[in-house]
Design a protein that fits this description.
OB fold (Dihydrolipoamide Acetyltransferase, E2P); alpha/beta; 53% helix; 390 residues; five-stranded mixed barrel; four-stranded mixed sheet
Amino acid sequence: MAVATIAELAEDRTVEGVFAVTRKERRRTKAGAPYLALELADASGRIDARVWSDVELLDTRFGEGDAVRVLGHVERFGGRLQLQVRAVEQAPDADPKELTPSLRRDPDELDGFFEFLAAEISHPGLAALVDSFVRDTRVRAALRALPAVLAFLAGLFASGTAALGFDFVGAHAHFPAAMGLLGGSLLLGTVLAGLVCGTAPARRRILALALLAVAAYGTIAAGRAILFTATHTPLRVAVTSSRYQYLGLSVVALLVCTALAQVAALGPTANRIVLVTTAAWMVVRIVVLVVRPFPIDHWDSERAETMAMLTSVRQQIARTPPGQVALIENQPFGLSRGFANVFPGWAGMFVVFFPDNTVDGRPVRFLVSEDDWQRAQARGGRIATLVTRR
């Protein structure tokens, strides 16, 4: 029997409905077979889903952020409900934003309330100071994105520490997973131990590295938060979005080593405990990786899509007579399939791979709709000069 909403799902039930794809990852089984790991959502909740069969075919039918029509069966895995997808296709008539839980209050309504509170300040000097912030659009945009920044920053630290300590068992794949929380707790405990046991110069080094880690992850979080805010992505989805950031992780590794060095310097016993613990962790890590190699996702489908796009663009440019404008129909790519207002499709990818709007003596322009053209002009930058109306 078909079930209408995620909140009504139960084990051993058949599902046929329309959901938003809030997460899509291509992974491999222990045997090397590809599968899709999804998170589906509607207004009532979320559920993990898996695509085991016809992966190559179904993978091309939808992307993260799309609304899809799904047929599947609900099973229980690891104590949680999981949807085994049998068929999936895009649902063009459905709006993904309406299918995902969002803020309890509309952001514009909260902005209006913020302006109202600012206007209630009676002190002239303080009122003028607050008004200068209220009227600054950059400050307002930053305030809007702040919850997403903080949520994603927490997710990055949890994912980074889980990846550093337990990635060989796949602990960093989801947050808040038990290993993710354990990794974050161990990081905090190690840093505090280093601060307590270390000398004054060592404490300064630990605090400096901690600040550097926050800066590295915070920069990433701030950049991603712009996307999350623009696409109205719920904070829970922002936190659980996949990532593996090497810069922040390298700083966290230095931070852990510096803190452990201070603990080991307490004396022979402490030194032996640190050495034995780290040696045991390394042996377990090597054994697990030898017995069960960690699957590496090379994003083959994304690489193939990128190469197909570049090949098509180069062929269309080559067919254009020298000196004439190469007009290329702009097509969706990646995020632009669900959020065209965030990423400009092929035109955006052209900017990534080509340093100039003229290639081999041929000016290149991408044909877009009136709405997309207006959006590009408002955004400004190179994209505004690269697109033209159909």
